[in-house]
């Protein structure tokens, strides 16, 4: 390449240099476009009609020649203006990266050039987000093969439900790296609930609420949330805690409508008996004589269960979403640990580790039956042998007990408590019932003969 005789650039001749830059730029752009076109055509080919080995060879040849072009350009450009070199190299590198990330849809999956075949990227081709792909693509460990992990790459996962919400995902991944994240809590939660869980990590800073206020110290924090400064209210109808507290009086429909009023019903939950199926925390703890120390409250609203347990020296993690209210912030303000996750996800605890799993209202007949069975098995997995599953106010239609009771009994737990009572709040004609159960996981299963 080159129009004049080799390397005798006249550095003082600005015009000639700028012409040369233009020529190189043009050349790079043309090469790139040809390659990209070729890559697209490779991707769309129909496998059966073609010889797979041949296609890979062709692709490899292209990549080789492309690399040669880039390195020639690099050498030539070394002597030219730095800014232009960066411009061209950045652009060629970006396109090269894309080319390497593209799945090979035809032929042998083993790419001899060592690009990582990542099936995850296949669905993200289209509306493209480099930031997203950079997060999820497998990455080589800088110190090479790890003897402890038995691998030389790591992968950052995102939920496969992301694949069904590409538009939202692309929106979510639009931000300035190192800047402030968009105010998009509602979008993030929509993705989570849609099975895009875990969400992709982002390289932007989560917004800090205006006028942030420190929480109260313990023990005061447990029963009084501080001012409204710990929350970004954009995603919620209410804009302060007073509004949330008053929701119950205004008879608005909301998840856990009375949970923010810490002087109301929350005060009595699990310490004095409410309805016929309720147990108190003290009754429950008494069954295990001090060995209930750590546990999980699934769908724990504003964290009152965890607070009541904390008062008794037991550490409870509360999973909760922010369904039109800042539940997670509120739980944290009370000095107990919120875990922001849906109930669809595998519980992030190891097998046989927790002393107790509690869940009130959340596990009920609104959950698809087979999904509920997966959840019960997952709860069983994380409970330690002898641990307690407190299914609190599970509700369903009376006739559905024929499905749910055998499902629970299938776990082979010891029934420490078992209460069924009519649930009348929506009218007796609905034939709804509450079931509360305190079940103890067996200490032995499938004992080897
Ligand atoms: C910030 O919060 C404090 C305490 O809640 C309050 O007194 C103050 O008026 C707030 N300032 C602004 C600008 O909202
Ligand atoms: C709280 O929000 C409600 C409506 O959302 C508003 O009417 C009220 O003035 C607010 N209260 C305070 C103390 O900011
Ligand atoms: C309960 O634990 C205490 C002290 O750890 C022990 O003295 C007592 O015997 C235990 N009671 C039962 C019923 O296991
Ligand atoms: C559950 O208990 C029944 C009856 O005691 C027994 O036949 C069955 O093998 C047990 N299943 C498991 C998984 O322990």
Summarize the helices and strands and which ones pair or pack.
Blueprint lengths: L13 H31 L7 H27 L3 H20 L17 H6 L5 H7 L2 E2 L12 E2 L11 H7 L12 H9 L47 H6 L34 H6 L7 E4 L6 H7 L4 E5 L7 H7 L3 E3 L14 E7 L8 H14 E15 L3 H9 L4 E10 L8 E9 L9
Parallel strand pairs: 3-4, 3-6, 4-5, 6-7
Antiparallel strand pairs: 1-2, 7-9, 8-9
Helix pairs in contact: 1-2, 1-3, 2-3
Structure summarized in a few sentences:
With 449 residues, the chain is an alpha/beta fold.
What does this structure look like?
The chain is of the alpha/beta class and 449 residues long. It contains 13 helices and 9 strands. It has helices at residues 14-44, 52-78, 82-101, 119-124, 130-136, 166-172, 185-193, 241-246, 281-286, 304-310, 327-333, 369-382, 401-409; strands at residues 139-140, 153-154, 294-297, 315-319, 337-339, 354-360, 383-397, 414-423, 432-440. Strands 5-4-3-6-7-9-8 form a 7-stranded mixed β-sheet. Helix 1 runs antiparallel to helix 2, helix 1 (14-44) runs parallel beside helix 3 (82-101) and helix 2 (52-78) runs antiparallel to helix 3. It starts with 13 loop residues before the first helix and ends in a 9-residue tail after the last strand. The chain binds 2-acetamido-2-deoxy-beta-D-glucopyranose (4 copies).
Q: Sketch the topology as an H/E string, one letter per element.
A: HHHHHEEHHHHEHEHEEHEHEE
Tally of DSSP β-strands: 9
Poorly predicted runs are 1-14, 36-56, 103-116
Largest sheet: 7 strands, mixed
Overall geometry comes to: globular
- Ligand species: 2-acetamido-2-deoxy-beta-D-glucopyranose
How much of the sequence lies in strands comes to: 5-15%
Distinct helical segment count: 13
Sheet with most strands: strand arrangement: 5-4-3-6-7-9-8
- Give the termini separation: 78 Å
Organism: Riccia fluitans
Domain Methyltransferase type: 296-390
Keywords: Membrane, Transmembrane, Transmembrane helix
InterPro entries: Methyltransf_11, Prob_Methyltransferase, SAM-dependent_MTases_sf
């Amino acid at each position: 390449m080159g129009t004049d005789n080799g390397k005798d650039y006249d550095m003082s001749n600005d015009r000639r240099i700028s012409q040369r830059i233009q020529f190189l730029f043009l050349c790079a752009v043309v090469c790139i476009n040809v390659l990209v076109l070729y890559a697209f055509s490779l991707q769309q080919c129909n496998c059966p009609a073609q010889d797979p080995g041949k296609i890979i060879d062709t692709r490899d040849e292209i990549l080789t020649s492309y690399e040669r072009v880039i390195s020639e350009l690099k050498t030539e450009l070394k002597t030219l203006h730095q800014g232009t070199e960066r411009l061209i190299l950045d652009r060629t590198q970006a396109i090269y990266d894309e080319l390497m990330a593209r799945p090979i849809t035809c032929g042998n999956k083993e790419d001899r050039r060592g690009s990582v075949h990542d099936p995850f990227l296949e669905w993200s081709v289209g509306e493209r987000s480099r930031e997203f792909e950079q997060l999820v693509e497998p990455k080589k460990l800088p110190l090479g093969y790890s003897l402890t992990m038995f691998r030389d790459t790591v992968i950052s996962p995102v939920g496969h439900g992301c694949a069904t919400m590409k538009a939202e995902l692309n929106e979510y991944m639009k931000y300035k790296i190192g800047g402030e994240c968009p105010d998009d809590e509602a979008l993030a939660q929509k993705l989570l609930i849609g099975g895009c869980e875990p969400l992709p990590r982002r390289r932007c800073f989560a917004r800090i609420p205006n006028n942030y206020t420190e929480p109260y110290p313990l023990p005061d924090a447990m029963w009084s949330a501080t001012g409204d400064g710990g929350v970004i209210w954009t995603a919620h109808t209410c804009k302060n805690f007073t509004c949330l507290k008053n929701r119950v009086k205004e008879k608005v429909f909301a998840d856990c409508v009375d949970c923010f009023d810490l002087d109301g019903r929350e005060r009595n939950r699990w310490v004095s008996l409410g309805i016929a199926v309720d147990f108190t925390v003290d009754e429950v703890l008494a069954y295990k004589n001090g060995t209930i120390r750590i546990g999980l409250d699934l769908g724990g609203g504003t964290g009152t269960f965890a607070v009541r347990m904390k008062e008794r020296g037991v550490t409870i993690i509360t999973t909760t979403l922010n369904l039109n209210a800042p539940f997670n912030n509120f739980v944290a303000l009370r000095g107990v640990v919120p875990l922001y996750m849906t109930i669809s996800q595998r519980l992030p605890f190891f097998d046989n580790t927790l002393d107790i799993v509690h869940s009130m209202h959340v596990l009920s007949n609104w959950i698809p039956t087979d999904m509920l069975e997966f959840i019960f098995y997952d709860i069983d997995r994380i409970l330690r042998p002898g641990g307690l599953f407190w299914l609190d106010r599970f509700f369903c239609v009376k006739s559905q007990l024929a499905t749910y009771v055998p499902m629970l009994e299938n776990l082979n737990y010891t029934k420490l408590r078992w209460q069924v009572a009519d649930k009348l709040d929506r009218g007796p004609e609905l034939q709804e019932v509450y079931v509360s159960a305190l079940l103890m996981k067996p200490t032995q299963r499938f004992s080897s003969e």
